[in-house]
Each structure stands twice: as C-alpha cells, then as structure tokens.
Amino acid sequence: MLYPSIDSLLTKIDSKYSLVTVASRRARKMQVDGNPKLLKYVSHKYVGKALEEIHADELIMIKKNLENFKE
Q: SMART domains, per this entry (predicted)?
C-alpha cells in the first residue's frame, strides 16, 4: 500500500494533473533548497515527500483566476 493513497490526496487537490504538477514543483524546490515542511517523512524520495506534505496540509494549491484570459 502506498502512503499517502491517491484517494486521500485527491480530496486535497481536485485533479490528478494538478496533483502531479504541485508535487513535481515542490520536489524540484526541495532538491534545490532542501527546506522541509515536516519533521519526519516516510518516503526517502523528493516526490514522495511532496505528496506527504500535501496530505498533511502543509502544501496547498492556489488556483489562479482565468476570467481575463484571452487567446
């Protein structure tokens, strides 16, 4: 069983695409600055750590307003 589960993560972020985007950006940032948001992680890899931060509500996604978007 994977921790955290995809079902529990999708209650925090509305789509799988957004979840992957947020987790990958945070993983890259952790590789550069190494600033942890949690005291202890289950995972040893950066993406797993980012997913744990999302699960613990330490990492959230803020949606941008696209009303004024023009093509």
A: RNA_pol_Rpb6
